[in-house]
Structure formats: C-alpha cells, structure tokens
Protein 1
Amino acid sequence: MSHSQESGGRRLDRRRFLTTAAVGGATIVGASALGGLDAEAAFADPMPSLDAAIPSAFAEGRIVAMNRNVLDVAGSHGERHLIQLTNATSIWKLRTTTAESIEVGDGLYARGAAMPDGTIAADAVWVNIVNVYVTIRGIAKDRLHLTHGSDELVGHIVPDTTTASYLGGALTADLSRTRIGQEAQVLGAWRPADGAIDIARVSLGH
Amino acid sequence: MIPLVSNLAPLVCAALLATTGAAKLFGRQTARLAANTVLVRVFNDGRRATLALRVLGGVELSLGAALLASPVALLPGAGTALLGVGFTGYLAYAKATAPESSCGCSARAEGPIGARSFTRAGLVVAGGLAAAGGDAAWWSEVSRRPGGSALVLAAAAAMLLGLTADLDRVWLVPLRKARIRVFGHPLPPASGERVPVAATVQLLENSLAWQTAMPVVRSALLDHWDDEGWRVLRYAGSYRDARGTHPVSVLFALDVTLTVDTAPNPAVRVSLIDEETEEVVPSSVLAPVPVRTPLPLAT
C-alpha cells in the first residue's frame, strides 16, 4: 500500500518535472503534415531501426508465459519469441497502459530491436489488438452488435475510452451518430475469454 | 393443449427436417460446409464428409415425408427423436473436440456451435417424442381446432425462426431498427465533452511537429496527463550524437481542447529530455522537415 502510494507520488513528481520541461523551454512547431504511430501502426511495416547496427524486429503471437518483464510468445506459424519489456516500451491494451495489465493467453503484436541473444527488446507492444471491417447490426447502451462477413461479433463500448470518427473527422466520445446497417472499421482489444471486442475506435463513413 | 401440441408436432418437425434435409441433400455449398465440420476429421476425407452430410440430408427428408404422410404411426416419431439424440451427441462431440468447427446443421454458413444448435437438437428430440405420442393425424386436428392449431403453429414457427441464425437479418435487424425509431438512439449525444486522448494523439500525428520528431520517437504513446490546460503526451525515443546513442523522453504538449476539426494547424511544444542526465536536449537533433521546392511549370 505505502509502496504503491510512494511510487504513485514519484510518478506525479516525475510528471510535474516533465511538464515543466515540456511547456517551459520547448520548441514550438506549427503547421501540418502527415504520418502516424498510433494503435493502427501495429499493422504497418516495421520502422527502420535508428541505429543501423541493430536490426528492427517484429513479433506476433499468443503469450504462453511471463517471467518478470520477459514475455514468452508462441507465433501463429510455430515460431517462438522472447520479448523483453523495458521502461521505454509502450504498452497498449485498449488504452495506453503498463506491463501489469498483460496476461498469459493474450495475443500481441510487438515491435522493437533484435538483440544478439535472440530476444527482442520491444519499443511498442499492442496487446489483443484487432482491426476489423464490420457492418453494424444492432446498437445497445453498452455494446454494438457487429457482423464481419458471416461471423457475429459483440463490440463493447467502454466509457471514457471508446471513440468514434465520422467521415474522417476528429475522434469523439459521441457515438450517437452510429446507424444500423452502416459499414465501419473497428479498432479494439479482443477479449480472449469470450471472443468479444472492447472498442477503442469505430470509424464510420470512410 | 398437450394432445394439440403432440398432434401438430409431426407437421412442425416435418417442416424443419424437410428444410434442413433438402438444403443438405441438394445444396450447392454442402461440400464447402462439410469442410468446416468435425466430420472431416471423423472420416479423414472431405469427400466422404460431404457424402455423409448429403446422406444425412436424405434421411432427414424421408423422415419428414414419413411424418407428414403417417403422423399417427410410432416409427417416424421415434426415428425423429433418435435423430435428435444423434444430433445432440454429435454436437457434444464436436464441441468437445473442435469447438471452432461449424455444426453443419442447417447446411448454411454458421459460426461455432453454440446454445442455438443444442436447443434445436433438443427440440428435434422433444418434437419426435411428441409426434410418437400423438393420437390423431395433424390434418384432422387442424380441421377440428383451427384457432388453437394456428396459434400453436405460429408459436412453433416463431421459435424455429429465433433458433436459426441465417434468418436473423429477416427479423432481428428490422426489430432493432424499429426499437431505435420508437425509443430513440440508446447512446446519448455527448455535449460539451472532454476531448478524448485519442483525439489529441490524432491531432499530434497530423502535425508537422510529429513529422519533425518522428526520427527520434521509437515507441507508441507511453504516458499522458493533463496539466493547466496542456495535455502532455510522452513517448520514448533515442538520439545519436558524437558520444553514442542516448535514450530520451519525447514530450509533446498540446492545448487540451483542440482536435483536428477545430485546429487544422496546431502549435505543438516539443521537447526531448535525456533519460540519463534528465537534461533538456537541444532541439537541433530534431530533423527539420525539408522544404519542398515546387516543380517548374511549363509555360
């Protein structure tokens, strides 16, 4: 208890320090351009490594074991990966989170650098991420009924997390413009227990 | 009521068996569907599995015909109940050994075996038993009690409709649409809402600041917090100088109220903090975005 409070306090102090640095002497860059490395980037080609001597690596599969900060991952094609999480590893599981929320049995996509000992030092890990094109077949207070081809899916709406984008506009928490019969792209986190999806983002009218 | 149901059971069972049997026996997709069932593993061969599914369709069809033609006889009813028991056993076996396989019950594309498949198989057992216990032909029952018969048949039809996933779009989607029309949209429009973090990330990723800092950024979003009107987004990164590669925190500070809709060209504060020394790294390590020179125009 006291330990977690202490570490929480440290975390806030650190944020305070970083805010001062970020807002105080920062470079201000205006105007617009293109690019992206959000959750969707899990499906993009791996970025070239900054250091030419370190080859970049990509891994995908189900977590079969966890040992401190090393994930033992069984790939879909029979391969095996050891993925090392560090302080600098970003972890996404429906939202930006920490290594504590990762469980054995989760699926993941990871990107990082291949280490000489065969492990992957992860830069970014996306847990249970799914990206599906669906048709909305029903709307309820806490979920959307979806079909993907002939498969039925339940997409849970998570308060303060689920966002929608209409016609390429800004992401908003307003889901009231969804309609039955619409085609949609759903980015979310798969729930291994029941096969449903927690929706991170639903894009409509693209 | 009970004799009414058991006398009409042959008609209901015959309708169900004829539909599913004909679909299996004559359906063009039977081969493709058989490939998704556990039968392939049982018979070790896709063609034999298809043949088995077609034979089963034939059996269902002839049972249906027998139920229609001689509803009072014991044999068709007992046969139907037996078939239902067989279905249940097959489903339990398939569920236990290959939970992802399709049931192949109605010879349509169906998802994994679920409660619906089991309920349908159970109903075949119950219908068969009821039919075996009937004491009058369904046509005499219908002519004797037309009102009650219509009610029972309508209830049976509704039940079968509800148990068939293929027909969901026939009734379920219009029902849901009607409910939204009557009761309004179940999800309230958000007014005066807080800008979601995802929207701020989207704003950042559309900005020149992002493009400038991208060569330094290595991770996805690590942490975020709001402070005095700013939303700070932290990423992990690394930069190289003469002394080697150094880990840094890449911090972006944006106005917490802005989105790509309200601010197409946001001002973004970018700073790099060295993770080891905790010092601000000069912004010269950020790659300036090259200015594009316009191509010469032919005049």
Protein 2
Amino acid sequence: MSSNKPPGSSHSAPHKSSDKDINKSVSQSTNKSINESINKSVKNNTQKKLWISLVFDQLALEILSRGMRPDDTRPVVITEKRRVYRASPAAFERGIAIGQSMDTAHSLSSNICLFDRDPDKEVATLSHLAQWAYQFTPNVAIKSPDCLLLDITGCLSLFKGIDNLSKRILDGLHQLGYHPVMAVNQTPLAALLLARFSTSMQTTKPSPATTTSKTNYETIDEGINVGINAGINAGNHDSGHKAGHETGHMSAAAGTRKSILDSIKHIPVQHLQTDAKHVTALQQMGIGNIEKVFDLPASSLRRRFDTYFADYLLRLVGDKSDPQNFISQKANFYHDITFASDVDNLNSLVFPVKRLLEELSDFLTARQLQTNQFTWHLCHRNHGKKSFSIHLANAENEPKAFMALSQLKLDQIDDIKEVDAIALSSNQLFSTQSETTDLFSDHSFSDSAFLQYGSASVANSFLKNQPKENLLLNMLHTRLGEEHCFRLALADDHRPEKSWQPLSAFKEPSASLSKEPSASLNKEPSASLNKESLASLSRQPSTALSKKTQPIRPAFILQTPKALKMVENSPCITNKLTLIKGPERIDYGWWDKPLNKPLTRDYYIASQPDGSLYWIFKHAALDQWYLHGIFA
Amino acid sequence: MDMKPTAMKPTALMPANSLEKILQKADVWRASDINHTNGINSVSASTISTGYDQLNQYLAGSGWPTNSLTEFLLDTSGIGELRLLTPALSQLSQEQNRWLLMVAPPYIPYAPALSSMGIDISKVLVVTPKKSADTLWVLEKALASKSCSAVLAWPQQTLKDMQLRRFQVACKAGHCLGVLFRHSRDASNASPAELRIQLQAHPASAFNQHSHLNLKILKRKGGWATEAFTLQLNDQLLQTTPEYHELNVNNQTRENDLSAQTIKHSGIKHYVLQ
C-alpha cells in the first residue's frame, strides 16, 4: 500500500512485482498494527500511534502540470542547475531522462516546456497541502522538502478504517493534481522511510515505459486497494491471530517494535534518513538492510556511530518518542496555479478555476466555514495582476454555485489577453450556521405560515434559506455589477426624493424600516379595514396610522426633478398639463440647504389631455414648475 | 351482438350523450365557459386574479397567467399600466417568498408608493442593465429561475420573435407572472405571448374619484380579441379637489370621518380608507 504513481514516473509497470511485494508487506504490518492498536486501546488504554506519510516526489513538476488540461500532452521538464530535475511522462516518452542537460532535452523534443525549479513555490505548495490535509486530522506536520506527516491515530474510526482513509486522501490529492507516494506505519520515521523507499523504487529505475498516465494511475490505485484488502484478510487470519498471541506474553512496546521492524527490515540501509557517512560505514561493515542494523547490539552501535544515529534508530522503531511540529490552522484561503505556458484563451481557464474552487470548498469544509466573498487574481508577468471579487448574498460553501458565478465573471473579461497564473483568495470567512428547515413545508411558502409568523420575520429571513433566490441574486450581481442591481427601502424623511433609498441587493433591510409596511399590510389581508383593526390602529397611531394615511404617490419618480416649460401660463410636458388634484405642500429642507427663503414645493397631480397622470410641483419662490413623478 | 342495439340507438339522443361525455374530459372546454373559473380548471390553476372583476371576465382562468408571457402595449408611461397590475403584484409579493423583479424600468420605482399600494418592497429587486444584451439575459434567467413571483420588464429595444419565444418558454419553466411593457407600435407584430393587451389612457374626468384605463385585448387564450373597453382603477387618484390656485381650502374635512386626514399647509384630504 505504500506506493502510488507520481505523474513523472510512469515507468514502473515493469517493476510492479517488486512494488507489490513491498505493498503487501506494508499493508500486512499496517493491518496488524491496526488490530493491535485497537486491541490495546481497548485493553490498556494506551493507544498506538499510526502515521501516514505523503512524499510529494514530483512536487516541482506537479505545481505546473496540475494547471494543464488533461488532454494537453506537451512535455514539461523542470530543470535545476541546467540539468533535468523532473520530467513529465510525455517528456520521458521522448527519451528525456533525469540528469540530462538542458541542451540534450531541447534536442530531443522541439515543443518542450522548460522551467527552472522554484523551491519557494514548493514550500508554499507543501504548506498549502498541509492545510488541505487538515480536513482529515488536526495533527499534520511538514517534513521538508517534500513530505507531509499525518497523525491518523484519532481519526481512523471516523473514516472507517485505514483503507477508506487512505483512499480518500489519495483521491482528494489526485483531484487536486498531486500524486504523492503514501505509506503508513506506527512511527513517523518508519512511515517516511517506507514512502521514500518506494519513491526510489520508482524513480531510480531508468525505464521509459510508454503507458498513458491515466490508465496507469488506475491500475496502481487498484493495486493499492487490492493490497490493502489482501493485507486485511491476511491479517485477520494469521498475523492478527499471531498479534493476539504475542500481546499475551510480550510487552506493548516490544510488539510495536517487532511489527515496525517487520515492515521495514528489507529496506536497504542507504534509504535511512541519516548522514551519508553512517550509511557508508554500515555498508563497509557488510550490513545491507535494516534488519541487520537492528541485529547489532545497541551498545556497540552507540559506540561506533554518534548518538544522533542511535537516537534515530530508537525513534524509528518507536522505542523513543518522536514529537512532531504540527501545523497551525491558516486563517485565510489563498492558493494559485501557475501554468506551464501562457493561457491566451480564457475559456481554457475553466479547468484550473474548477480545481481551485474545489480546494476552497475543501478548505471551508474542513474548518466548518462559509464565505460570502472570494477573489480571483489573474496574473501575467507583463501586465501585472488583475483581481476581481465575487460577492454572495449569503455566506455559503457551494462549489457549483461558485463555479457558475466565476464563469459569469470570466466571460465578461475582455481586457486580458494572456494569463500565466491564476490565484484564488478568500478572506471573509464565517462559521457555518446550522440550517433548520421545515420538515413539511416545501419551497413555496403558504399563506397560513405567512399570517401565523408575521411577514416581518419572514421578510427578514427571506434570503436566509433561499438557495435558489440567492443564486439568481448572485448571478445578477456578478454579471451586472453592484450599482445596477438594487432593492428598495423606505427612508425616514418626508421629502419625496429622500423617503426611499436604494439598498444593496445583499443587505437585509433594517428592521425598523422593513417591519413597518409589511406588518401593517399583514394585519389587513383583504385591503379593507374592520372596526377592530381600526381600533387597534387608533391605539397605536404613531406607526400604523401614519402608514395608513400615506398620501398618494406616483409609482415612478425622477431622482432629480425636471424643469417644465410653460405654454400659455400652464406647465407642459408634451402637451398642456391640467392640474387635477392639489396642492400638497412639502416644506423643503432648510436644514440641508440654508437659504434665505424657505424652499417649499406645492405638489399637484396633473393630467395631459390624453389622460396620462404626472406628479408635478411648483417652486413658489422660483416660480418654476417641475416634473417629479409619473403615475404609471 | 349485445353491442348492436346500443349502436342502433335513436340518432337524436346520441349526439347529446356523447357530447356530454366529451365535455367531461379535462382537456376539452367550451369557449363560453371562459368566464367561469370552474370551466377550465387547468387554466385557472396557473393564473392570479387581476383584482378587477371586470377584467377577470375577459381573461382565461380569470386572471393574469402565471405561466406565460403577458404583453402590455402602450405609447407612454403614466397611464396606469402599473396600477393595473398592482393588486396582483401586491398579492404575489405577500403570498410568495420570491422576488418581484423589475428589469430596466424607465424611471425609478418609488418605494413609498409601491409600499402604500400593498407591495412588500423587501421583495422588490430592481435591475438596470447597461447593455441591451444584459437586459435580455436577465429577463430569460429571471423568468426561468423559479425564484421570481413576477418579472416586469421594459425592454428598450425592439424584441425579435425568437427572443420573445425564448421568454415565453422561460416563463413557462419559471412559473411566474412575466409582463413586458412594449411600445404600441409593436402591436402589429406577431408575438408568442399568450396575452396581449393594448393600453390607452382614459381622459381624466372631474366626476370620478378613480382613474380609468382603456384596454383592448389583442390576443388571449380561449377567446377572440376584444373591442376596447374602459376599466376603472380603484386608486382614488382623482378625488375631487379644489382649484389649484386656491391654496387654502381647509373647509372640506368631514369631522366624523376617522380615516380622513388633513395635511397642514395644503389642506387637501387624503382618503385612504373607503
């Protein structure tokens, strides 16, 4: 179960058998250790640790390749000090090998994409992956340069066993475009050793196998599953049985030590994560694999090598505790994808966009968060960064909705010709609020419920549980922009222009303003007032009655009144206006515009000969008529 | 052989019997039934009352269709085109927890007025797209979204037949009251909208409290086009009023009328309660 396929090394098909042997041994030991740890935790209350190590051997390559479309088959090569450091499967197909010079690589393939290794980026990506792995366990440690350690002791039962968990981790990483090598063991160092060993099994063999990467991954995945299952069956029959026996007369520590040793004893000494001189010394002593190292008496080892090495061996088999430096949670989300080549067609951004959104969603899920805003950054080395934000009516975590909105926004961009990196960030995070939905009511809401609970509360919670309504609002907002999409609210002012205000589409109307009209309407569903409600209104005249006796207003209003010309002493729009009703005098805000004369307006309802009705006013002081509204 | 006598029944009875049977089928209706809601059950299920009995009589299902497009054709705004819709909009906004969307209105919808007409303004959403292509996009998305109880649109451009057809399809999918306000010159062009009404202002009369609107139904479900008829809008817009130059008419208040209130300075009564 230790080996998985990095994309750069599709050449392990001929060595499958050797991989499989290791898989088997690992999974057997793993399974045994699980059985033991479960037994122990029940009996002795001292739980065995279980670690997953993930070695991102191809990280330098995957940073670039994960932004490529799956059907993009250009060979990608990462160089370090002008030598090939990592190469994509397509590059291996063309005969490119690790360690070649850049010139050789160029001569082997004409359309090759060469990139210099970016260690900073690798570190950043690894730390991002550590944050991603936080969804499985809170104990995640980063082992530079390319490894993650996950303490999965506490989350095994949550994920229903090691095979489920490892499948989920690997599937998740494949989804993100990473293909690490995974190993499980009871100490961090042993897990790391196993993973590194299986990595080397894949990369050191110079075999440019020409298999398509996809099918290869599948077979490997199956291989892992089979390996795990076989391991579990085997474990149930003999090793589990054996383990049960062993625990009877063996101390817990010795049992752990033995099972760890069993899993790593075949590994050659050069894979030990220690000084090269120790390895050389061991090899000179004729010690080939790890089993033989542990056959040596501990005291002589301590004498021959330094204490560090002895210490390492103790930690390797769990005789000494090996505390890890676990990551702390990052507060905000930021991640990017760098492209192997400039993307000049924004449509082809859909694939990386989707990938980043999935990461955002995973990030939010792991932390039980939601967001109401995320920002895309499109970068290019020549024209800098262009950012655009997407706002949502309510905080949510819906990758599909995020995708639809992002696509709307991408479709609108026309001033960006090419992009070489795309990043996604989100800073406004809110903890998920558990939603309580009515068991019986469907989406459309019934009259009785409306009357029962009062419209004010319903109106205020209007947006809360309305995913569809929110989606429409989000879409309109994203495509049209904030200023072209608004809601209406009443304002506390008697002047016509100021007695309403546009309300940002995402804002809930403030309680005092929204309650008033809807509450009074609610009391009067049949639009006719009976004695009882009349009495209740007179008791509380301040709010309800003033609303009831609202003067008649036009349905359409001009934000700035339009001066009217005069024809034969009458105001005129297209034809002469006849005053029908009025005046209604509205005192104008001397407190806003201190003038000598009071600015009063006398409002009339006026009609053109054809019967259309307008709301006009005369400025007494200026002796000028204005059009202010239309009775639509 | 049992069948034969039945088949040989007197011919005078046969048509009556079979006609009744046919009429009992759900998908068969008589044009004369159009005025009665129980006549066409399937239609009445997807309409909302206009709030005007006189108008309801003319419409299939006795109301505005909520699963198909309605067109109002008019020369100029200000003739009562929104007041005609107000009762239905008020009912929709209060009964349904969905948006009431106004797309590209020619002026700003005035919140206090809408609110006093009984519309729950917390559900009113106004969009003013910059480009005409955006207007079309918004219209189709909103109509089909199922999250709008009503979509009112004032498209500035002349709509093509294909675009109208898409709106009609979207309206059916979204189950909402979709009303397009179009210029009356488009009346002569064919449209897939199920209901098309030409609106014309009715000259204000001094003897009426309410304003009136002339309607001519150009196209409707289950009926022919109608002659123009006048509909009284219950808006009390034209309540009797003194001459405009007499600013101090403060003597007409009925003291015992609780609902009548005099506004200072103007001295004009506002009857809100009937």
